[in-house]
Amino acid sequence: MPNDRDREIPESVTISFELNGKLVGLQVNAAETALSVLRDRLGLKGPKEGCGIGECGACTVLVDGLAVDACLLFAPQLDGRTVETVEGLADRETLNPLQQAFLSHDAVQCGYCTPGMLMSAKALLQGEAAPGRKAIVEALSGNLCRCTGYLQIIEAVEAAAAQECTGRDAKE
Ligand code: FES
Ligand code: FES
Questions:
Q1: How far apart (Å, rounded) are the C-alpha atoms in residues 164 and 56?
Q2: Does the Cβ of 34 fall within 6 Å of ligand 1?
Q3: CB of 69 closer than 6 A to ligand 1?
Q4: CB atoms < 10 A from the CB of 124, how many?
Q5: Structural domains in the chain?
Q6: For the chain, what is the largest distance between any 2 Cα atoms, rounded to a whole number of angstroms?
Q7: In what order do the strands lie in the sheet with 22-29?
Protein backbone atom coordinates (compact mmCIF):
# COMPACT_ATOMS: atom_id res chain seq x y z
CA MET A 1 0.00 0.00 0.00
CA PRO A 2 1.47 3.39 -0.99
CA ASN A 3 2.36 5.67 1.86
CA ASP A 4 2.99 9.43 1.99
CA ARG A 5 6.70 9.02 1.26
CA ASP A 6 5.89 7.36 -2.07
CA ARG A 7 3.67 10.22 -3.15
CA GLU A 8 5.27 12.34 -5.83
CA ILE A 9 5.48 16.02 -5.15
CA PRO A 10 4.60 17.83 -8.39
CA GLU A 11 7.42 19.94 -9.73
CA SER A 12 5.18 22.64 -11.02
CA VAL A 13 1.72 23.83 -10.13
CA THR A 14 -0.68 26.34 -11.56
CA ILE A 15 -1.68 29.09 -9.19
CA SER A 16 -3.89 32.13 -9.42
CA PHE A 17 -4.17 35.02 -7.04
CA GLU A 18 -5.15 38.66 -6.88
CA LEU A 19 -2.14 40.93 -7.29
CA ASN A 20 -2.63 44.62 -6.64
CA GLY A 21 -6.28 44.32 -7.62
CA LYS A 22 -5.82 42.18 -10.73
CA LEU A 23 -6.21 38.45 -11.09
CA VAL A 24 -3.05 36.69 -12.28
CA GLY A 25 -2.51 33.05 -13.08
CA LEU A 26 0.73 31.24 -13.85
CA GLN A 27 2.59 28.01 -13.55
CA VAL A 28 5.26 27.97 -10.86
CA ASN A 29 7.89 25.61 -9.68
CA ALA A 30 6.77 24.15 -6.37
CA ALA A 31 10.09 25.11 -4.76
CA GLU A 32 10.13 28.67 -6.10
CA THR A 33 9.71 31.46 -3.59
CA ALA A 34 6.90 33.98 -3.79
CA LEU A 35 9.58 36.66 -3.99
CA SER A 36 11.12 35.19 -7.11
CA VAL A 37 7.71 34.85 -8.75
CA LEU A 38 6.83 38.46 -8.00
CA ARG A 39 10.18 39.88 -9.07
CA ASP A 40 11.42 37.58 -11.82
CA ARG A 41 8.25 36.21 -13.33
CA LEU A 42 5.84 39.10 -12.85
CA GLY A 43 8.34 41.94 -13.07
CA LEU A 44 7.48 43.66 -9.79
CA LYS A 45 10.84 44.94 -8.58
CA GLY A 46 9.44 46.70 -5.49
CA PRO A 47 9.87 43.74 -3.14
CA LYS A 48 13.64 43.39 -2.71
CA GLU A 49 15.84 40.47 -1.86
CA GLY A 50 18.09 41.42 1.04
CA CYS A 51 18.94 38.51 3.29
CA GLY A 52 16.72 35.85 1.72
CA ILE A 53 16.18 34.27 5.14
CA GLY A 54 13.45 36.34 6.76
CA GLU A 55 15.63 38.75 8.70
CA CYS A 56 15.67 42.10 6.87
CA GLY A 57 12.09 42.71 5.72
CA ALA A 58 13.16 44.10 2.34
CA CYS A 59 10.85 41.61 0.62
CA THR A 60 7.75 42.45 2.70
CA VAL A 61 4.43 42.20 0.87
CA LEU A 62 0.88 41.90 2.14
CA VAL A 63 -0.87 38.56 1.81
CA ASP A 64 -4.54 38.75 2.74
CA GLY A 65 -3.69 42.02 4.48
CA LEU A 66 -0.87 40.66 6.62
CA ALA A 67 2.76 41.71 6.20
CA VAL A 68 4.87 38.69 5.28
CA ASP A 69 8.39 38.03 4.08
CA ALA A 70 7.98 36.94 0.47
CA CYS A 71 11.39 35.24 0.60
CA LEU A 72 10.04 32.75 3.14
CA LEU A 73 6.88 31.90 1.26
CA PHE A 74 6.69 29.25 -1.43
CA ALA A 75 4.98 30.41 -4.60
CA PRO A 76 2.19 27.80 -4.36
CA GLN A 77 1.20 29.38 -1.04
CA LEU A 78 0.02 32.43 -2.97
CA ASP A 79 -2.75 30.45 -4.62
CA GLY A 80 -6.16 31.97 -3.93
CA ARG A 81 -4.71 34.83 -1.89
CA THR A 82 -4.83 38.57 -2.19
CA VAL A 83 -1.35 39.97 -2.59
CA GLU A 84 -0.32 43.61 -2.38
CA THR A 85 3.07 45.03 -3.21
CA VAL A 86 4.39 48.55 -3.12
CA GLU A 87 3.50 48.88 -6.80
CA GLY A 88 -0.18 48.89 -5.80
CA LEU A 89 0.09 51.66 -3.22
CA ALA A 90 -0.24 54.77 -5.34
CA ASP A 91 -3.53 55.62 -6.99
CA ARG A 92 -2.29 56.31 -10.53
CA GLU A 93 -0.35 59.57 -10.17
CA THR A 94 -1.40 60.16 -6.57
CA LEU A 95 0.92 58.82 -3.91
CA ASN A 96 -0.49 56.98 -0.95
CA PRO A 97 -0.30 59.10 2.26
CA LEU A 98 2.44 56.80 3.54
CA GLN A 99 4.56 57.32 0.42
CA GLN A 100 3.98 61.07 0.63
CA ALA A 101 4.95 61.12 4.31
CA PHE A 102 8.15 59.14 3.64
CA LEU A 103 9.12 61.74 1.07
CA SER A 104 8.31 64.76 3.19
CA HIS A 105 10.07 63.35 6.26
CA ASP A 106 13.26 62.40 4.40
CA ALA A 107 12.63 58.80 5.34
CA VAL A 108 14.18 57.50 2.11
CA GLN A 109 17.86 57.42 1.27
CA CYS A 110 19.02 54.54 -0.91
CA GLY A 111 15.42 53.26 -0.88
CA TYR A 112 16.27 49.59 -0.64
CA CYS A 113 14.26 49.05 2.53
CA THR A 114 11.50 51.47 1.59
CA PRO A 115 9.03 49.14 -0.20
CA GLY A 116 9.15 46.72 2.72
CA MET A 117 8.83 49.50 5.29
CA LEU A 118 5.84 50.93 3.45
CA MET A 119 4.08 47.58 3.28
CA SER A 120 4.66 46.84 6.98
CA ALA A 121 3.35 50.31 7.79
CA LYS A 122 0.34 49.77 5.56
CA ALA A 123 -0.51 46.53 7.35
CA LEU A 124 -0.31 48.37 10.66
CA LEU A 125 -2.52 51.28 9.59
CA GLN A 126 -5.11 48.93 8.10
CA GLY A 127 -5.51 47.24 11.46
CA GLU A 128 -5.11 50.23 13.75
CA ALA A 129 -6.33 53.71 12.92
CA ALA A 130 -4.19 55.61 15.40
CA PRO A 131 -1.17 53.55 16.43
CA GLY A 132 1.16 54.98 19.05
CA ARG A 133 4.92 55.15 18.59
CA LYS A 134 5.40 51.86 20.40
CA ALA A 135 3.05 50.05 18.01
CA ILE A 136 4.79 51.62 15.01
CA VAL A 137 8.24 50.59 16.26
CA GLU A 138 6.95 47.08 16.87
CA ALA A 139 5.31 46.85 13.43
CA LEU A 140 8.54 47.93 11.74
CA SER A 141 10.82 45.85 13.92
CA GLY A 142 11.26 43.24 11.19
CA ASN A 143 12.38 45.82 8.65
CA LEU A 144 16.01 46.86 8.66
CA CYS A 145 17.36 50.11 7.24
CA ARG A 146 21.06 50.62 6.73
CA CYS A 147 20.79 54.30 5.84
CA THR A 148 18.41 56.66 7.53
CA GLY A 149 18.30 55.65 11.11
CA TYR A 150 14.75 54.92 12.06
CA LEU A 151 13.47 58.21 13.46
CA GLN A 152 12.43 59.72 10.13
CA ILE A 153 10.68 56.51 9.14
CA ILE A 154 8.76 56.31 12.40
CA GLU A 155 7.80 59.98 12.17
CA ALA A 156 6.62 59.47 8.60
CA VAL A 157 4.33 56.64 9.68
CA GLU A 158 3.00 58.78 12.53
CA ALA A 159 2.27 61.60 10.10
CA ALA A 160 0.51 59.29 7.64
CA ALA A 161 -1.55 57.81 10.48
CA ALA A 162 -2.54 61.29 11.63
CA GLN A 163 -3.50 62.25 8.10
CA GLU A 164 -5.55 59.11 7.55
CA CYS A 165 -7.30 59.68 10.88
CA THR A 166 -8.12 63.26 9.93
CA GLY A 167 -9.41 62.05 6.55
CA ARG A 168 -11.57 59.44 8.24
CA ASP A 169 -12.93 61.98 10.75
CA ALA A 170 -13.75 64.39 7.96
CA LYS A 171 -15.73 61.68 6.13
CA GLU A 172 -17.64 60.62 9.27
S1 FES B 1 14.89 39.20 1.84
FE2 FES B 1 13.16 38.46 2.86
S3 FES B 1 13.46 39.04 4.93
FE4 FES B 1 15.32 39.63 3.93
S1 FES C 1 16.98 53.85 2.95
FE2 FES C 1 18.73 52.62 2.47
S3 FES C 1 18.35 50.77 3.55
FE4 FES C 1 16.79 52.06 4.21
A1: 27
A2: no
A3: yes
A4: 20
A5: 4-87 (3.10.20.30), 97-171 (1.10.150.120)
A6: 66
A7: 22-29, 12-19, 82-84, 60-63, 66-69
pTM: 0.91
Ligand 1 nearest-atom number relative to CA 72: 2
d(CA 146, CA 48): 14
Residue 130's identity, in one-letter code, is A
Amino acid identity of residue 25, one-letter, is G
What is the model's pLDDT at position 112? Answer: 98
| Ligand with the closest atom to the CA of 120 | 1
- Please report, for residues 62, 113, 116, 133, the alpha-carbon distance to residue 146 in angstroms, rounded to integers and kept in the order given: 22, 8, 13, 21
Task: Evaluate: CB of 113 within 6 angstroms of ligand 2.
Answer: yes
22-55 residue pLDDT tens: 999 999 999 999 999 999 999 999 999 999 999 9
Q: How far is the CA of 58 from the centre of ligand 2 (A)?
A: 9
Distance 2 CA to ligand 2 centre (A): 52
42 lines ligand 2 (CB under 6 A): no
